[in-house]
Amino acid sequence: MRCYGDKPASFLRMQPSGSIPVAIIDGVTYNQSNDIMYALEEKFPDSIPLVPTAADVRMRAQSLLRLERQIFSSWMYWLTSRDSPDGRLRDGFISTLIEVENALTATSGGFFLGEQVSIVDAMFAPFLERMCASLLYFKGFQIRVANGEKTNFPAVNRWFDSMETLESYQLTKSDYYTHCWDLPPQLGGCVSEDGSKQFQDSINGMNGSWDLPLAADNNGLEPDWSWAGDEAAAKLEAVERVTANFEAIVSFASRGAGKSGRSYGAPLADPNAVSNEFIQPFVDAAMMVVCNKILSETDTENAACDKAMAELVSVWKKEGGNEVIDKVAMSLSYLRDRVGVPRDMRLPAARQLRAHLNWAIKTLQ
Predict the structure, then answer these.
(1) Which element (helix H / strand E) includes 186?
(2) pLDDT tens digits, residue range 57-68?
């Protein structure tokens, strides 16, 4: 995980490889997610167990965990390779995914072992989530669909619905854009197949998918997070997250008009970049208008924000010419492309912020 920048020595002493996660529990360092989960199970024996205690259920769990390793392997092979003309890698993945679908169809509840979430769900969750994002982006293969849409994998979709009722999962769930920019540097590259560009453009906001008004479920590609609240809640969250750390965010955004630092494997990682201090007051003013635009509820309020941004452009053009306007647009673009989920905010809020930053960028241009 050195693709995002150099790790501090204190972290490398705990985890020489630089990878995450790492946990210290009762003085013991664990650097594998599976080990961490089992250690926590032992630490809190009075809690509802994630590891089944009945012998037959435990055997079922072991079988499912072997299936999890199988689908992980078939996903990795396909994602990081160019498939043969006969679609051998695609067919191999689909065959294993059908096994997962059948396992979930056979359960009596929403989770792999029934009504109660278990260690099996915890093991499957991070990889099934990344499969949905990456295979759509790089291979044009859709697993997760919007509510009510037809799918060959209804049980997998119902399982995601069940997982999204859990606060613990909600807090860690990411979006397709974040996953699809995170995975290639971590894996050493992902290989795109013919026909995937339209999905990449939609996920990257290149074909109007990040423009106002936002289409539901990104036009059917990525289900909206209805459990996160309505549009008003998403807008409030976006503005709250920006204003809670406003000065630092303005400085960060102004890196887009500053000097780049040492490059790393992750194309959006720029930890040593130097912010353009001169442009920061201009970015600050633009961000204030963006936040007001996000919170606008009426046509009158929207028109006032449109007028305010247009007036800023007019004043900046007189005072600094097109160079100032261009640098502000570069800064807002830099920020837009680096809104991460869930690090910065949840998907509905991120969609609002990206779209309103796009509105400002297009006004400036």
Answers:
(1) helix 176-187
(2) 999 999 999 999
